[in-house]
């Protein structure tokens, strides 16, 4: 497997500078103007200026020197700082790629790839449920798409996305993906058989844990393949369900409440 590494540079106050913005900087330098560089990078003039301003704010020094006239209505060239930033960014990515290539033999047989490792270390989300799987089916029309992600031998989760999201994320059958579901979106029904509801996802499982407080409760289901799915319900609902560890139950949630993320 060919390993690539990407770097994002940011501060608490300033949004990240990653490969896309470095490529914009390179395009502006190559084309000789911000207008032409933005076009080459597939950005609007305003989006390019916003990105370049963000980079200047992050590094504290101008990365481009602009001048009137020139090709495409105004010229631009890299400052010495801009040259150093591009060079340093390339070295950072190359070093990260080298590190992960060296890690790959050590991970052999563990079922974990370097990409899984990075995602597990650095991915942050407010969703209680983040499950890695493989896309096994995509049904799409001109506006929307249903994406099926198999997260365990027993469980496939369906997400309803826009067709544009499928294209922009590069989602295809066979690609790994992560599904995110907030726990309050998950309903719990006791028993092996899912209830007759319009929700697309009815996932069978076994109660692993039921933590009940004065107001709320969290019910965690084992859904196979060492994966779990958590639901956040009211304490009264949990009392009514009377579920205990080992009991069969189904997690029910709508496909529109599932977010798909990629590495």
In short:
This is Molybdate transport system transcriptional regulator, ModE. 33% of the residues lie in helices and 32% in strands.
Polypeptide structure, described:
The structure is a single chain. A hairpin with a 7-residue loop joins β1 and β2. The longest helix has 28 residues. This protein has 263 residues and is α+β, with helices and mostly antiparallel strands. The protein has three domains: 122 residues, Orthogonal Bundle (Arc Repressor Mutant, subunit A); 56 residues, Beta Barrel (OB fold (Dihydrolipoamide Acetyltransferase, E2P)), CATH 2.40.50; 73 residues, OB fold (Dihydrolipoamide Acetyltransferase, E2P).
Structural descriptors:
OB fold (Dihydrolipoamide Acetyltransferase, E2P); 7 helices; repeat; 12 strands; Molybdate transport system transcriptional regulator, ModE; 263 residues; Arc Repressor Mutant, subunit A; Molybdate_resp_trans_reg; Mo/tungstate-bd_C_term_dom; single chain; alpha+beta
CATH superfamily of the largest domain: Winged helix-like DNA-binding domain superfamily/Winged helix DNA-binding domain
Query: What integer is the average pLDDT?
Result: 81
Strand order of the largest sheet: 5-4-3-6-12
Q: Class by helix and strand content?
A: alpha+beta
| Main β sheet profile | 5 strands, antiparallel
How many distinct beta strands?
12
CATH architectural group of the largest domain? Orthogonal Bundle
Family: Belongs to the ModE family.
Region (Required for dimer formation and molybdate binding): 125-133
Organism: Rhodopseudomonas palustris (strain ATCC BAA-98 / CGA009)
Domain Mop: 124-190, 196-262
């Amino acid at each position: 497997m060919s390993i690539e590494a990407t770097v994002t540079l940011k501060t608490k106050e300033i949004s990240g500078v990653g490969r896309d913005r470095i490529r914009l900087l390179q395009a502006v330098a190559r084309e000789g103007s911000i207008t032409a560089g933005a076009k080459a990078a597939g950005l609007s003039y305003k989006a390019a200026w916003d990105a370049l301003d963000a980079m200047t704010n992050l590094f504290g020094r101008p990365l481009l020197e602009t001048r009137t006239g020139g090709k495409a209505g105004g010229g631009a060239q890299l400052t010495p700082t801009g040259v150093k930033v591009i060079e340093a960014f390339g070295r950072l990515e190359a070093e990260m790629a080298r590190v992960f290539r060296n890690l790959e033999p050590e991970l052999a047989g563990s079922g974990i790839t370097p990409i899984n490792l990075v995602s597990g270390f650095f991915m942050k989300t407010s969703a209680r449920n983040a499950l890695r799987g493989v896309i096994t089916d995509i049904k799409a029309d001109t506006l929307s798409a249903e994406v099926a992600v198999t997260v365990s031998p027993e469980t496939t989760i369906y997400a309803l996305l826009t067709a544009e999201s499928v294209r922009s994320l590069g989602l295809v059958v066979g690609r790994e993906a992560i599904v995110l579901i907030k726990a309050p979106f998950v309903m719990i029904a006791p028993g092996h058989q899912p209830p007759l509801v319009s929700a697309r996802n009815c996932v069978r499982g076994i109660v692993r844990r039921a933590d009940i407080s004065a107001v709320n409760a969290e019910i965690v289901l084992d859904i196979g393949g060492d994966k779990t799915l958590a639901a956040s319900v009211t304490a009264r609902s949990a009392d009514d369900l009377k579920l205990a560890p080992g009991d069969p139950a189904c997690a029910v949630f709508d496909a529109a409440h599932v977010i798909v993320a990629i590495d």
